[in-house]
Amino acid sequence: QVQLVESGGGLVQAGGSLRLSCAASGRTFSNYAMGWFRQAPGKEREFAAAVTRSGGSTYYADTVKGRFTIARDNAKNTVYLQMNSLKPEDTAVYFCAAAPGGILLKPGAYRYWGQGTQVTVSS
Fold it and tell me: Which of 85, 97, 113, 117 is deepest in the core (most CB within 10 A)?
């Protein structure tokens, strides 16, 4: 299997920035597209961003487009989510996930999930 470990979450003031990292181990990292999802208390998990296996294409939810950037470094087996201009409504647990294929905007495409990291944005 693939193990995914997120880091970089924390408490930040509105308008600030955070960079999340997701380190992968196990099966070959480059075989998987990677995505970031987030889940706020009492709400369903929602898609935030995804990147294809080679890093050639990226996808973003409308709510984060222009503020968040996803990138991957296959040599380091790591995917990143750079979050700028953070808003209180970005507060959530953020999960990284690995997909062997499928429609990357859908949670069902992802076979492996990390444990999540808390991001809290204060007003």
Answer: 97
Contact 24, 1 (CB under 8 A): no
Residue 50 CA to chain centroid, in angstroms? 7
How many other C-beta atoms lie within 10 A of the C-beta of residue 26?
Answer: 12
Q: pLDDT, tens digit, for every residue of 15-65?
A: 999 999 999 998 789 999 999 999 999 999 999 999 999 888 999 999 999
Residues 6+ apart with CB under 8 A from 39: 45, 46, 92, 93, 95, 116
CA 22 to chain centre: 8
Residues 6+ apart with CB under 8 A from 58: 49, 50, 51, 52, 69, 70
Task: Give the C-alpha separation, 50 to 59, whole Å.
Answer: 5
CA Rg value for the chain:
13
